[in-house]
Design a protein that fits this description.
By secondary structure, the chain is α/β, with parallel strands linked by helices. It is 26% helix and 31% strand. A 4-stranded mixed beta sheet has the order 1-2-3-4, sandwiched between helices. Helix 1 runs parallel beside helix 2. The structure holds zinc ion.
């Protein structure tokens, strides 16, 4: 996992890329030490894989920050990150997710893409914004079941 860290005026911005796995335990422990009390925004758009060891390390990391009253926000959550959020308790809290990716596919020409959806777009329930295919203009379909995919938000 690659970690990049940027200090802004009122918060810390951390971008995570790659795989969250057994090698992430030490990295996350080290990262935790660099986070002082305050606000942290995580861009997790580059997360590619989260295995069970990685999920455990992540939950330990996130719960530790929450205990220290660090306010966590997750933006551009990758599909893999959302799937882990649905699978593991305490992986994220519903209120911490600001935006996430939706996997879309065109049934006509097969193009697939991921679009970022903001939390406010689904506050009323799992109705998702529609998009047309850039190549053939056919309305694109979600590659996931919306109710299952958004279960972590607890809005259904
Ligand atoms: Zn198409």
């Amino acid at each position: 996992m690659q970690i990049s860290l940027r200090r802004n005026v009122d918060q810390l911005a951390i971008a995570l890329r790659g795989d969250v796995n057994e090698a992430s335990t030490d990295q996350l422990a080290d990262l935790s030490g660099k986070i002082e009390v305050g606000r942290v925004e995580f861009d997790v758009s580059g997360i590619e894989l989260i295995n069970s060891f990685g999920a455990r390390a992540w939950i330990t990391f996130a719960q530790g920050l929450r205990r220290r009253k660090v306010v966590l926000t997750f933006v551009n959550c990758a599909v893999e990150f959302i799937e882990a959020s649905n699978m593991y308790v305490s992986f994220v809290a519903p209120s911490e997710v600001a935006s996430f990716q939706l996997p879309l596919q065109c049934m006509s020409c097969g193009v697939s893409k991921r679009v970022v959806c903001h939390r406010s777009q689904v506050n009323e329930g799992p109705t998702l914004p529609s998009q047309n295919c850039e190549r053939c203009k056919t309305p694109m379909k979600l590659e996931v079941d919306p109710e299952t995919y958004l279960a972590f938000l607890e809005i259904a």
